[in-house]
Design goal:
With 375 residues, this protein is mainly β. The chain has helices spanning 76-86, 113-117, and strands spanning 22-24, 50-52, 88-98, 125-133, 141-148, 161-169, 180-186, 192-197, 202-210, 217-228, 231-246, 277-287, 296-298, 300-309, 315-317, 321-327, 333-342, 345-353, 359-369.
Length: 375
């Protein structure tokens, strides 16, 4: 028996803004939505005040020599939009899945006794992800993954932290403590892709996709890859479904029972037929020709491309999500994730690696299914 949490949706107050933060009101004409968003998917009444760091400064342009990585400059305006859209308290649920897409149970040591007695299986962590991208330090972003101990009923308001994992990228090229970021690509909408080297043979591809017609809703899908003699294989998958709960407070305030998401890991995955076939996509791209320089890039462009997605190696996940790791006939490897937002309409993210497992390109796409599969 799988345990699912159903939480009532409670309106969030966004009037409490901490000192030392600047409120940035983004008129619709300067927000950068995904291109060609269908009218029936746009929530015209939706609005959100974005919170980011204290002030806007000139773009950072840092270039170093030797083996040090550098952060190339992009426009301050685009970084400002990204910082405003990505910063805040993101609360929700997260779960681990096997390389085949099967949910992995939480350790029995963290499951409440009441569930153990009734043999209830628990797959989901309640999570927090406080995030801050600094306006005055272009290329600087900080966030935490906080896992909370499972609770019974609405004890979620008093949930205790189980673990905290901090990730940090500095515009000056400063390494983070335990993991090294080898690439970071961002889009003004708040989407990003980060490639983390956790040890010599383990790589994490973190894809953050923001719902283009509700930017308070996002998913983060992390593909954990093992590298062996240039070949890449999928070890496991981590999925986080998150809602924007308020301005950045470094995780000090928990959404608790007010969280609008619910546990999802044991819910049914969608049918593979919903994402196979021919798709027409509008892509934003970031290129990484040299792995030792320019590790932070903006996803730019509005290139239209056609692609075919077949059933082979597709891993279907709950909540209209999917992922895959495929090798092309030329030897390149593509790690892809996607989110089906409506029938025939999806957003996706791809990381393309060379035959030597070196990152070549990151692509963020909005895709529409082509009805005639022979086109």
């Amino acid at each position: 028996m799988a345990f699912l949490v159903n939480n009532n949706s409670i309106a969030q107050s966004r009037n409490l803004i901490p000192l030392n933060f600047t409120v940035i009101n983004h008129p619709k004409n300067i927000l950068r939505p995904y291109p060609k968003l269908p009218n029936h998917l746009v929530n015209h009444s939706h609005s959100r005040t974005t919170i980011a760091a204290s002030s806007v400064s000139d773009a950072v342009d840092v270039h170093t020599t030797g083996n040090q990585k550098s952060f190339s400059s992009t426009t301050t305006t685009n970084w400002t939009e990204f910082a405003g859209n990505v910063s805040g308290e993101w609360d929700g649920f997260g779960a681990d899945f096997s390389s085949k897409g099967q949910p992995i149970e939480l350790p029995q040591s963290v499951v409440p006794e009441a569930y153990r007695e009734w043999e209830v299986k628990v797959f989901d962590w309640q999570t927090q992800c406080p995030t801050l991208a600094r306006l005055e330090e272009q290329g600087s972003i900080f966030y935490k993954l906080i896992r909370l101990l499972p609770t019974v009923g609405c004890e979620a308001d008093a949930a205790m932290q189980y673990s905290i994992h901090t990730k940090k990228i500095r515009g000056e090229g400063e390494d983070i403590e335990s993991e090294q970021v080898s690439a970071f690509a961002y889009h003004p909408t708040g989407c990003y892709v980060a490639v983390w080297l956790t040890d010599e043979r383990l790589l994490e591809l973190e894809h953050c996709l923001v719902n283009p017609h509700n930017r308070e809703s996002r998913v983060r899908i992390i593909q954990v890859l093992r590298i062996n003699e240039g070949k890449m294989s999928l070890e496991k998958i981590r999925v986080f479904r998150e809602q924007w709960y308020g301005p950045f407070r470094n995780g000090e305030q928990l959404g608790g029972c007010a969280i609008r998401n619910s546990a999802f890991a044991s819910t049914e995955a969608m049918e593979v037929s919903q994402v196979t076939g021919v798709w027409r996509g509008s892509l934003a791209v970031a290129s990484f020709p040299n792995s030792n320089t320019n590790i932070m890039q903006e996803l730019v462009g509005d290139n239209s491309r056609m692609s075919r997605r077949d059933e082979c190696d597709l891993i279907m996940l709950p909540k209209q999500l999917w992922c895959s790791l495929k090798e092309s006939e030329h030897g390149d490897t593509c790690g892809e994730v996607g989110w089906l937002l409506d029938h025939g309409y999806a957003i996706s993210s791809r990381c393309i690696f060379s035959t030597e497992a070196k990152l070549k390109e990151i692509r963020l796409g909005q895709e529409t299914a082509v009805l005639d599969s022979n086109r």
